[in-house]
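Shipment paperwork, digital attachment
Item: protein structure file
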Amino acid sequence: QVQLVESGGGLVQPGGSLRLSCAASGSSFSFNGMAWYRQAPGKQRELVASIASGRSTNYADSVKGRFTISRDNAKNTVYQQMNSLKPEDTAAYYCNYFPIIRSWGRGAQVTVSS
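Attachment content:
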């Protein structure tokens, strides 16, 4: 069974930066796309960024130019560098395989507030 463990969340002021990490178990990591999702209170979970096995990336318009997704296949880890954070980026952030979603991890809470 695939396990996903997110880390790196926290409280940051508007304009600040955070880097999220997601460690995935399983031997098929390098052959699959991965993605970051987020869910704000009272809202549906949304796709934030994705990275293919070939490392091509896509971003939601709301984070384009501010977030960068990357992966290290040797470590079975996907990252998300988040710069110029805004209060509307406040959410629980989750990683998962993409496009076929597997079991969700516990997520990493990101709070952007002064």
